[in-house]
Amino acid sequence: MKGNFLAGRSFTDLDALNREAALWCAEQGGRWRRAAACVPMREHEAACSANTRPLEVTAEVERYLCPRRKISFDGFVSFEGHRYGVPYWYGRRECRVSREGRVVHIYSDDLSRELVAHAVGAGADSWCEGQWETSPAQPEELPTQPVGTVVEQIAPPRAKPGFERFDFGRAE
Question: 115 and 107 in contact (C-beta within 8 Å)?
Answer without folding.
Answer: yes
